[in-house]
Amino acid sequence: MKIGVIGLGYVGLTTALSLAKLGFKVYGNDKDKEKMEKLKNGICPIYEPGLDELLVEMKEKGNIEFIDNISETIRISDVIFICVGTPTNEDGSPDLSQVEEVSRIIAENLNGYKLIVEKSTVPVQTAQWIKRTIKLYSHENAHFDVASNPEFLREGSALYDTFNPDRIVIGVESERAKEILLKIYEKINAPKLIVDVNTAEIIKHASNAFLAMKISFINMVSDLCEKTGADIKKVAEGIGYDRRIGREFLSAGVGYGGYCLPKDIRAFYYIGKIHNLDFSLLELVERINNSRIDRLMEKLKKALWHLKNKKIAIWGLSFKPNTDDIREAPSIKIVKRLINEEAIISAYDPKAMENFKKIFQNIQYGKDKYEVLKDAHALVILTEWDEFKSIDIQTIKKLMRTYIIVDGRNIFDCEIFRGQNIEYYPIGRTCI
Ligand code: NAD
Predict the structure, then answer these.
(1) What CATH number belongs to 205-284?
(2) Residue list, ligand 1 pocket, CB within 6 Å
């Protein structure tokens, strides 16, 4: 079975290399020429643990090939995974133009039966639109199936998640499509849920909307904890023990970000709206998330009074640890607010600084977590990278101008700072 993967971003590249590792012959294509050049030279264009090694291994084995021409990629493949972006339009509706463009090119290059697998996150009924588009642009007796196989990987552990998923959702309309997808995932030990395509599409959006809702819920409760002297970490532990609730996604903080949750919650809300359904619950989820930025800025200003000409050190720019991805990261909003307040910013992130520099050229960047602390009036923690979880109090005192830490990821125990003359402001807990 020859598999084509169109779009080689976080999802597409992980999918392509994982399928290659499973023993399939994979052809990868992306319209981004720079990305393709890197891949052809064995250089991974993104940071994702284990991906660069797998790329080299699969290239050496000859299991993956990168092909510049999308038409050729389609023609030589039996199965085509669509992994292109699905960003948000101004009005919150999902922008499906990349999916539509690929569908048209597939239509023009159909040369025998093909299974087209929608892996990008798309609104319910998109597979129907792909089908219609392919029929519209191809010759009359085009022979194909469209399946939905949503992706649930988490950036930062994408490869692990791909080989150890909680479930594999297979949305199909034909026995043939079902058999092909079951064959592809045969070696992966996970529950395989066979459903219709509309159901599969909704499963993905509903999952992400639910996860975002959990985060906003715990953040809402964390505000109450701060007002009343309770401890959100203990509250989360207390409710998380309940198996009906579960412990994951109950970390209060500066809010969710990244490429998926913000856009998917907007898209799901929009889908509800066009079907005349009241999905306003999701509007509130987004509103609570946005207010996290205000909460953090309030804390900083309460500690420092004015921010003008104050040096603020930032630890963490990526939207979560173990990735270089900064799309919709809270750090972007915080840095913009700090610039508006005329603060001096000095930032450090283990992997995301190069991406951040593309947006913010005029802030300072440090080569390590302590360099940015020199003469800083406050440290703001925005990503819970492991390397930030240990802190040397004496170094802090030697380097910082005033000893203030605003921790947007709640990574330290209050005890560490007690009696040290360091003001520590976490989320949903009171430490001073
Ligand atoms: P990405 O932006 O990293 O990758 C998309 C790639 O598609 C880009 O490299 C782009 O150049 C390429 N592309 C766009 N149009 C193309 C075309 N016509 N031909 C060839 N290539 C084209 O995005 P991503 O993070 O990989 O996400 C892809 C999809 O998967 C989205 O729908 C997203 O919601 C979904 N998803 C993402 C994640 C995640 O954690 N990133 C997880 C699950 C699902």
Answers:
(1) 1.10.1040.10
(2) 6-12, 29-32, 35, 70, 83-86, 98, 101-102, 120-121, 151, 153, 155, 259-260
